[in-house]
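U., I forgot to send this yesterday:
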Amino acid sequence: NLRLLGRLDVLALANSLNEIVRRHDTLRSCFPTHDGRTEQRIHSAINLDLKITDVSDLPLPDREIEAERLVREANGRSFDLEHGPVVDARLVRLATNDHMLILTFHHTVFDGWSEGVLWRELAALYAAYSAGRPSPLTDLPVQYGDYAAWQRNWLQGDVLEQQLSY
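Result:
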């Protein structure tokens, strides 16, 4: 969750989130099961819908309570791994210049290391888009699936035996 204080360009935020999803194959993935085996299927495109809930008309103490309830609800939601998406984005408007961004990812596609990448990319993209500039980020030369395939190919024969013995 991220508290956003000050003027917020909601369209720039939504576009930033969609660009992050476009950049990272894993965020466009689903995991259908066929013949007892789970496989990764990457959608060519996904439009991430930024769901907006406005609680600014509630009395001040109730806004925070409702925002926390929405965080718990988002964190407790289940994902449809067969079809996706595996990411959910919600924005809670607490006041004109006070918002809470709630991003929820299935643990299959997001870990602690990914969080730093997410926040860096979101900051760079939002700064550019809210100023009317294009994305400052270049396309990724390697996706996580490329790394996983390399690791699977590497982890065979003697290397696999050594790792299993260890």
